Amino acid sequence: MNKEEVKGKLKDFFVSNLGCDAEVLQADTALFGDEIGLDSVDSLEIISFVDDEFGVSMTGVGKEPFYSIDTIAEFIVTHA
């Protein structure tokens, strides 16, 4: 699976499962903070989704890979 496919699946997940606004959410939008406003509970859902969907564990990973869809996709492609 290439990075663009991964980003598409991640965006679909964020919109359908975490209630993110598809118009606001771009590949480089900060997920945590004012713009999207995800929290630590959401990060657990992200970890579970990535593990189930891509077979990549993000448990215990620092916060840097969680910055945006781009950074999560890069982590997945690198560790798949």
Textual characterization of the structure:
With 80 residues, the protein is mainly alpha-helical. It has helices spanning 3-18, 40-54, 69-79. Helix 1 (3-18) crosses helix 2 and helix 1 (3-18) packs across helix 3 (69-79). The longest helix has 16 residues, at 3-18. The chain is globular. The mean pLDDT is 96.
* Element-level helix/strand string: HHH
Name the shape in a single word: globular
- Average predicted confidence as pLDDT: 96
Major beta sheet, specifics? none
Q: Which consecutive residue ranges, at least 5 long each, have pLDDT under 50?
A: none
Residue share in β-strands: under 5%
Please identify the structural class as seen in this structure.
mainly alpha
Ordered list of secondary-structure elements with their pairings:
Blueprint: H1 3-18, H2 40-54, H3 69-79
